[in-house]
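Cross-posted from the bioinformatics board.
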Amino acid sequence: MSDKNIIIEANGVQKYFSSRVSGKIKALDGVSAKIHKGEVVVIVGPSGSGKSTFLRCLNLLEIPTGGQILFNDVDITDKKVDINIHRQKMGMVFQHFNLFPHMTILENMTLAPTHLLKKSKEEAEAKAMQLLQRVGLADRADAYPSQLSGGQKQRIAIVRALMMEPEVMLFDEPTSALDPEMVGEVLEVMKELARGGMTMVVVTHEMGFAKEVGNRVLFMADGKLVEEGTPEEIFDHPKHPRLQDFLAKVL
Amino acid sequence: MRVGPAQLWPDVAPQWILNLPEGLEDFCYDIYKSFIFDDRYEMYIRGLGNTLLLTAMATAMGIVLGVIIALLRATWDKNGHAIHGFPKLLLRIVNIFCNVYLTVIRGTPVLVQLMIWYFVVFASSRNGLMIAAFAFGINSGAYVAEIIRSGIMAVDVGQMEAGRSLGFGYVATMRYIILPQAFKAVLPALANEFIVLLKETSVASFVSVADLTYAGNIIGGNSYDYLFPLLMTALIYLAMVMFFTHLVGKLERRLRNSER
């Protein structure tokens, strides 16, 4: 039966986008992957390869047109499953942060736990302050998102997701919208998270991060999972010509 | 026979006014006739009260109606493609009804709508104020709906995704995350809709609601002189509109400065 260590299992996930102009676009063409507990899986690939779409399928922000997503052995693509319950356990960090601009940092962080986990305001705030301390932003608790730099916003977005005590964190190009000098501070938080044993799936263009932190690297191209392996296998001994071609361009 | 202002005038006017040159004395007499005789100023005040009451009731109804319709329409616009089966059919039908409502209400004069409500639909009721409040509420709802819908549509899609990814359902995300931002963005437009409504309610005098315009009209008719009653009516509207416009300006500045 199922391996207790697998937290997310994607089976033949397909995603078509239909557009009036160009008809059906195949974004994902039967992608299967397993994410184990405590693992940091990095997804790389050229733009348009479907890596973000695949990540967004994992918590059903994109609803797959075919295939299955098992989260803790529950098929969350089943229409009868209440996806909201499962999403609470899957934190997500976006390229554009998506902090709530009408709320302070503290309110951003306590909104979900007070409403969804029924935590008291005091309890949630105490936890928020503790997390803010960890990312060095405790002094900005009462600031609004527009008062923060991109790097600070993204660190807040990460701890906001952590407030729900997720079992897995999904990162959708978390450093792509940042000025170069701010990439480091965000990656540092992610590395610390990985060291703490968090299960992470990261779509990124940061090959250094993939090499250093990733346990496993998935290479996607044209909506397919082309090659997967340890960072050494992927970066030092690439087999597939598409991967060799890609690495030649980015490294 | 009823005593008219002309008979009373020599008794109530102070001697120094009666001694004024003829033109100025006439002016004072017109003022007396339009505002003081028979405690006519009370009619303006009651009329103003009714105008404000009518506007307040219509605004409240318009906002409730507008939010509901804006949510239904925005949900269909943004998520219609992701919903399937019976809910989709239901939403589609509801959305068609909303569109018919918006088209009819925004495509016909408010006075005609008011008269249809008053003389046809609620012909058995003579409570003009409530019927007018209802009519203006229905009318305003259509405009408010489109204002709020534009606000909802303007909120970045990432906000919905962020809310959903934390585990909030669609409705909760709307309530805690999308609507507060949408409201904030369209608050000045909503306030302007309120100001427009304040002036529009003047047509309620058509179905004999004793609002401000009605007071000016009646006093003008009773005193055979419309100049001062209508000037005063216009002046009160102008003062209210200027006051509320000032408030809206203040509000806009505060919204612009907050969170920066």
